[in-house]
Amino acid sequence: PGNAGSSDPGTGQIKITLKTRDESVSVPDVPLFVPLSLKRYGLSEVVNHLLDTEKPIPFDFLINGELLRVSLFDYITSKGLSSESTIELEYTRSILPPTFLASY
Amino acid sequence: AIQVVDSKDTPYRSLDEARDVWQQHERTTGDLSNALCEQLRLILEPTQSTKLRGDFRSGKRLNMKRIIPYIASEFKKDKIWLRRTKPSKREYQIMISLDDSKSMSESKSVNLAFDTLTLVSKALERLEAGQVSIVRFGEQCEVVHPFQKPFTSEAGAHAFQWFGFAQTRTNMYSLVENSISLFDEARVDSAKGDMWQLEIIISDGVCEDHEKLRQLVRRAREQKIMMVFIIVDGLTKGGNSDTASSILDLKQVKYYPDEDGTQKMKMTKYLDTFPFEFYVIVRNIAELPAVLSLVLRQYFSEVADLA
Ligand SMILES: [Mg+2]
């Protein structure tokens, strides 16, 4: 579906980098090769894994200042990008209520 | 079967421009190419130390395994002697596969990849080791220079026309699968004798499906196709930071079902699951002759042990 050049949303992967302005939750600056199926929740899990937190912290993710509300696959497809690009993600502690967070 | 690039397609650059690019890379890698050629000559040439081999009607030493059949056959099976034989000249088919996917240009690996391609192909040409072919891969893979044609600088320029590093996928599985069938066909076409088939893959190394790929690479090996992977590590600057990132730093996130079936995240170093057993990481073209000959020597010594 979508961009013919993109990988399968089920098995495809993409390179991402993670940045934050919040120094209390910053992670090492290394690229990650992650499933294209990841959404906010999965990405949060990745950041929490890197932080080695005891209690998971929910995060929101921005690409070029725009809040990510869909999977990485849907994002690159809608922007006409391919999985050959590296996506730069900025994350912040989520300020949205948990009930709302569960919806995307 | 794998396709030869369609001459009706529009190449990425004109032949004149491709010649310029080729010559420029040929100049910068000339000395290194000579060095690689000399190192490969040492590796690829059959060893001069000869072995005693059977079975002959006269010779230097008796082959003890043949004595009982000799007597049992009432002295008819009389090829009972070992001789020192000259090693036969090996023939090679070497395929150079260059990653034409977009990540190559995004990771600033193109220059290094072109350097690598000219360096390796010129060294092989000078070595007169056998047939050389060039393949491009990304979403699909195509032959841009076939085994049947002699490889020259002009042929190199023609091949360079077909690399634009804009393909929006890196289908490594299809590359390996198609390479196997291409080698199969080439083996049939060529004369009998001691045929060695080697594939040199030049890529940034980023690909999916490591598990499936590993099985396919194993199959290639069973068919005596040697695969050596050159990872050109262009060291991109990641994000807004000033620190350069390397494939050595890349981490992979994967999900596996645990005992009760829930998906569990696992984070590993990307290269820990890299499916190609023989690989080298090149950041500076000057390092290539030494590391490539090292890995080839390792490969050939393993193959020689199997033979
Ligand atoms: Mg790629």
Question: What are the defining features of this structure?
Answer:
heterodimer, A: 104 residues, five-stranded mixed sheet, 25% strand, disordered N terminus, B: 307 residues, alpha/beta, Rossmann fold, 8 helices, binds magnesium ion
Beta strand % of chain B: 15-25%
* Integer average pLDDT of chain B: 86
Q: Can you tell me the CATH architecture of chain A? A: Roll
| Counted beta strands of chain B | 14
Low-pLDDT segments of chain A: 1-5
At CATH level 3, the topology of chain A is Ubiquitin-like (UB roll)
Tertiary shape of chain B: globular
Alpha plus pi helix count of chain B: 8
Strands of the widest sheet of chain A, in order across it, are 2-1-5-3-4
Polypeptide structure, described:
The complex is a heterodimer of chains A (104) and B (307). With 104 residues, chain A is of the alpha+beta class. Chain A has a single domain, classed as Ubiquitin-like (UB roll) (Roll). Chain A is built from three helices and five strands. A five-stranded mixed beta sheet of chain A has the order 2-1-5-3-4, with helices on one face. The longest helix of chain A is centred in the middle third of the chain and has 12 residues. The mean pLDDT of chain B is 86. In chain B, the strands form four sheets. A seven-stranded mixed beta sheet of chain B has the order 1-7-6-5-8-9-14, with helices on both faces. In chain B, strands 2-4-3 form a three-stranded antiparallel beta sheet, with no helix packed on it. Chain B has a two-stranded antiparallel sheet with strand order 10-11. In chain B, helix 1 crosses helix 4, helix 1 packs across helix 5 and helix 1 crosses helix 8. Chain B has two domains: 212 residues, 3-Layer(aba) Sandwich (Rossmann fold); 33 residues, no CATH class. Chain B is an alpha/beta fold. Chain B has eight helices and 14 strands. At the A-B interface, strand 1, strand 2 and helix 1 of A face helix 3 and strand 12 of B. Strand 2 of chain A pairs parallel with strand 12 of chain B. The structure holds magnesium ion. Magnesium ion binds next to loops of chain B. The site of magnesium ion has 5 residues of chain B, from loops.
